[in-house]
Amino acid sequence: MGDANPMFQRFGKRRTQQILVLAGLLLVFVIIHLATGSRFLTRRNLGIIVSHAVIPTFITWGLIFSFTSGMIDLSIGAIVVLASNLAGILGLKFGYAGLIVGGLAAGVALQALNGFVFLKTKIPPWVAGLGMAMIYESIGAFYSNMAVRSGGMVVSLGSQLRSLGQLPYNVLMLVPGLIAVYILFCRTSIGLNVRAVGSDIRVTKEMGIDPNRAKFLGMLVCGLFIGLGSAINQSYVGQLLPRTGLTTVSTIFQPLTAVLIASSMAAIFNVVVGVVIGTISLSALFNALTLLGVPSGTWQEVVLGMLVIAVTIVSMRGEEGVVK
Amino acid sequence: MTKAKAAKNSVVLRVEDLSKSFGPTRAVVDVSLDFRAGEIHGLIGENGSGKSTLMSMVAGIHTRDKGRMFKDNQAYDPVSPAHANEQGVSMVVQELGLIDDLTVTENIFLGKTDRFSSRGVMNLGKMRAAAEKAFADWGIAQVPLDVFAKSLTVEEKKLVELVRALSSNPDVLILDEITAAFSHNNRTVLYELLAKLKAQGKLILFVSHNLSEILSLCDRITVLKDGEKVTTLDAEGATEDELKRLMVGREVKETYFYTPAKLDKAEPVLKVDGITLDGVLRNVSFELRRGEVLGLGGLSDSGIHELGKVLFGLTKPDQGQIIFAETGERIDSLRKAIDTGIAYVPKDRDTEALMVRATIEDNLVLPSTDSFVGRLGFMSPRKRKAFAQEQLRVFEIKASGIRQAVNQLSGGNRQKVSLASWLSRPNKILILDSPTRGVDVGITANIYKLIAEVKGQGIGIILISDELPELIGCSDRILIMKNGEVAKIFERAEGFSEHRIVQVMI
Prior knowledge:
Helices cover 74% and strands 0% of the residues of chain A. Chain A is mostly helical and 324 residues long.
């Protein structure tokens, strides 16, 4: 029906929908602000919200490369622990360059190892990922025990190299990060092939694309962003203690929720931007819950769990094939 | 003969003793053929005759078990479709071949993005402009380039696949059942396009079940049966009856098994009142009567396929109502439609009608699971199995058994599974969207016979079709839609005229 075609209309509506979503978010923020006795939308609190969203944003940007191609990797949290510690060790020796290179090197190397294991063994990635998480957690524990035996502790930055994890530098890192992830995901054949493989492997193969290569490259890029996130994380916390018992797996839930939020809004916002909206919204949510006196570790986690389910439902009810 | 003419008629592609088996099934058996530049070569045969497998080997989708291929007198051995593409061979496959989560532009150039990239970064503007140009150059109606492929209709997806195949400017273009997805207007565009390509000396390998189309379009026709070549003949002088006899191995008469319905005495079974769906349907009203076949026809943007979904409760209209006349009950959901006794066989069988990875049994029993549940609430495996085996027999589904996965069946047999799963229920209204799409003449005749039988049982049938002869052959009335509105309802008593119907359509 000419211009009355629903697809033309849907495409034309995109900007309106973007404005509506952002306006809706703003409205929620205003309500929270009023509910928290005007403590939410203050300059300082907004800084905290955005600051807390930075590390999950980098990790989520990484996740979209692996998750989109169907590589559900549950060892990401364990990789962050190892990458943060290596970043700290090299950071103390070589300054910020060592901090960033250490994070990147560990992130890429461990994702490369995961990719190799997942693709060669053909074990479902989430199963293999659990196995790799146990191994990485154990490596962290070995390192921690070794450090204790030699009379020390795991690497701690003390007061050094802490600027990268603090305002305004951590937030400023989002800008080159956003540009890089947009280019890699939307404007290179790496991103295009990752999206193609995740959507329809048969057609992708017929187009002459090697699915395993596409998945492996996606995981390497994932490693880059996780590595960078780990470096910022080390700078932010100063010291990250290794954990065992698969406790690192829970680290993935917040970025996972952000991936789901971004996927559910894929028809409105580019996924890369959707991730930022997702992580900031989640950070704002936890901040609001804290301001409202909801205890963390229990009720806040309940809210996160409910949110994961709610967002998944919304995603599934949207356009077909949104949630992987 | 001039040099140009000689080049035009030269053999551009030759296959020798080509064979391919899938497990115990011999899909293609020792087929040898030569194809000439500047010809449209039709391939016909029943479902499962090996047409698509043969073409898939030429296009590098399947590797051959035996035999050789030559292109331009050089050994030709494509290892993938991309490899075939590099050597000038492109194919639009029978199934849908787009990636849902990529945009139209990305789909067109997937695997060929290097020419739009500088230092690894793609220039999306340049890529989009190239896609726009490709649609314009080939005279194909442009679909939105920035939307995800999943939001396109089957017809639009096929148009994109066609543009993708043409974008590499191939010497050999293989089209497998493409027109089955097209409405009248886009078929006309395609025919003009093929004539242009033929004039440029390209080879077009054209697979279709539409024999009149094959006869009017092709220069030569190859008939396949059970994976073997029956013959290759010139289209000039050939007749549809002759082609059918060669395909099936026996005489198949053109019949729609039409029996007149007594519409003046028939009560309405469904009342459709003022259905409006934003931008798609506008104030659509009509009645379906008991024991009537009401044909629904129109061009690609007429809304006929969307109306089918609305009537079955799959899409909720913005305005209007659908009433089951017997009880006066309003049908406002899919559940209500099924409970009322409405069955719907969608156009896109692979994504909407069937669970292609599941077994034939699972597909057949799904709409009727209630009838297999015993007193304790458990399903009886014995009843399920017996039911599925009975449907396999009644609908003559060619399969190794009910445990075979649907994606291992040919297109026509998949369609039989789709039909069987719904027709085996006690229905009061049947909505059939393009039931003979991609189905061979033998099965098509069976489907027409089935429609006549169902009609004889007093069931009201809505037959949505892009095939005018089918609408004219089967329907008691034909409702033509244009731009989402009812343009005219033709009564058989007035005499259906293809010319008049097309005039209303366009």
